[in-house]
Automatic annotation (TrEMBL):
It comes from the Bacteria. GO terms for molecular function: DNA binding. PROSITE patterns: HTH_CROC1. Pfam families: HTH_3. It comes from Saccharospirillum salsuginis. This is XRE family transcriptional regulator. Residues 30-80 form the HTH cro/C1-type domain. InterPro entries: Cro/C1-type_HTH (IPR001387), Lambda_DNA-bd_dom_sf (IPR010982). SMART domains: HTH_XRE.
Length: 291
């Protein structure tokens, strides 16, 4: 999944401060406080709290203040600083990586939970083929008809529920996928060779419409698979990364691994051949290929 450049180094003070800012923002949002209310609750001056939360700030509160924050919010100091993945004060920390097998209903609830917990952060997604939010039912049935995957059905259901709530007022979604996926779909090549042309056209038209309607909250980047590679995964803000394995999820909690996967996503975006403002135009070009 990663190149040699993606290998992570031990966290330095800047990384710790960044993790602290991200987790403080999550806690403040979760409690529904503004900065004044939160600073009063933890016994710190509002201006001091603002300085700790400024972008690029490297200063951290004193140990006493960190303890007060942890005690008030029911988390551990280690979690605030990114040392462990679990929020609680118990010793049974969440492992850095875990696998999760679920029924369809369980997967639906878990997906909804992950989306809720990522409110206010970016959700960044590299799909295996067509992005869930943009896939029509006919393509989903064609692609997965020979698989008994309850989790896949839950993903499709979650996608439909998200579409019903669009536009997304609190969550930005970035999707990065290969140009070749759409090219092969338009031409009926590869895995799409047995899919009827009218369905392939309907899929592209559906994608074009949604990409236009949801921009800029939903941003689609297209990269050249000849020059870049990525396995599919989803980043739910800085909290977790999810790798879909067909009948289970591989869940990454480690701050360092999530940061490395975020950097990998950033490199894909930087090298993208088509940016979100031109995505609908590119899909239209593939539609013309089908004429």
């Amino acid at each position: 999944m990663f190149s040699q450049q993606d290998e992570f180094q031990p966290a330095d003070k800047r990384d710790i401060a960044q993790t602290f800012r991200e987790r403080m923002a999550l806690l403040i949002s979760r409690h529904g406080f503004n900065l004044s209310q939160f600073s009063q609750a933890i016994g710190i001056d509002r201006s001091a709290l603002s300085q700790f939360l400024m972008p690029e700030a490297t200063r951290l509160p004193r140990a006493e203040t960190l303890f007060n924050i942890a005690k008030f919010c029911g988390v551990s100091v280690d979690w605030l600083l990114g040392v462990v993945a679990t929020e609680g004060e118990r010793d049974d920390s969440i492992p850095s990586v875990e696998t999760l097998r679920m029924s369809g209903d369980e997967a639906q609830r878990k997906l909804a939970q992950w989306h809720r917990e990522a409110l206010g952060y970016k959700i960044r997604y590299i799909p295996s083929t067509i992005p869930d939010l943009l896939r029509i039912p006919e393509v989903s049935e064609y692609e997965f008809k020979d698989h008994n995957l309850e989790i896949r059905e839950a993903q499709d259901k979650q996608a439909r529920e998200l579409l019903d709530k669009t536009p997304f007022p609190e969550t930005d979604i970035e999707v990065c996928m290969p140009l070749q996926t759409l090219e092969h779909l338009a031409k009926g090549e590869g895995i799409w060779s047995d899919l009827a042309a009218p369905i392939r056209r309907k899929q592209l038209e559906h994608m074009r419409a949604l990409v236009e309607a949801f921009y800029p909250t939903y941003r689609l980047f297209l990269y050249d698979q000849h020059t870049a590679f990525s396995a599919p995964y989803t980043l739910f803000g800085p909290q977790r990364a999810i790798i879909y394995l067909g009948n289970m999820y591989l869940i990454v909690h480690s701050v360092e691994h999530i940061r490395a996967m975020t950097q990998h996503f950033d490199r894909l975006i930087k090298g993208a051949e088509v940016t979100p403002d031109r995505a609908a135009e590119q899909i239209e070009a593939y539609l013309r290929v089908m004429e």
